Amino acid sequence: MTTNEYIRGVKEGNWPSFPGKLWQRNYYEHIIRNARSHQQIAEYITTNPLQWE
């Protein structure tokens, strides 16, 4: 399901509205251009939740 499909479904009454925000503040996408970049991103994804505790 895409964001547009969800929003349309909420407006048509087919889906409940989401009680919070859909997007993170300051969110951005990043293109993985090489193996080193891929490794750094994978490491970030793996270790970042540990910093929440």
UniProtKB/TrEMBL annotation:
The lineage of its organism: Bacteria, Pseudomonadati, Bacteroidota, Cytophagia, Cytophagales. One of its GO terms (molecular function) is transposase activity. It comes from Xanthocytophaga agilis. SUPFAM superfamilies: Transposase IS200-like. One of its GO terms (biological process) is DNA transposition. It comes from the Bacteria. This is Transposase IS200-like domain-containing protein.
